[in-house]
Design brief:
By secondary structure, this protein is mainly α. It contains 7 helices and no strands. Helix 6 packs antiparallel against helix 7.
């Protein structure tokens, strides 16, 4: 999404055209959100821009740098799991198969997270995985 591109490209000396080509040409932030995000310099500025848009406002809640805080990437994964779970609410469409595969990918990320916590003897963070259901 645009937040990932804006935050991932902050601090990089790139031309506007290069960064602009990374943004999608659809979604809730297009086109006016793109105009604001192209000049975003840091996380706080991206957060302020996204608070203008309903769905993205909630994504930034609970994001921080503390030991028990979620990262923005974690919040995106949580939102993705919610949307994929909705794919199972209806029948007779192929979205169920896509949702199943994507949720399996998240399950694999959760297993890797738990295994890494155990390997690093950091059991205090073991519960920071993204629950699927």
């Amino acid at each position: 999404s645009r937040e990932r591109v804006s935050q991932g490209s902050s601090g990089i000396n790139a031309e506007y055209g290069d960064i602009e080509n990374l943004y999608p040409r659809c979604g809730m932030l297009y086109p006016e959100g793109l105009k604001f995000l192209k000049n975003a310099e840091d996380r706080e500025e991206v957060r302020r821009i996204c608070e203008r848009y309903g769905m993205y406002k909630d994504l930034h809640s609970g994001v921080g740098d503390g030991p028990n805080d979620k990262t923005l990437e974690d919040r995106f994964f949580q939102e993705e799991v919610k949307m994929l779970a909705l794919g199972f609410m209806n029948s007779f469409h192929l979205g169920v198969f896509f949702a199943f595969v994507k949720l399996k990918e998240q399950e694999n990320r959760n297993i890797v997270w738990i295994a890494e916590c155990i390997a690093q003897k950091n059991k205090s963070k073991i519960d920071n995985y993204i629950p699927i259901f």
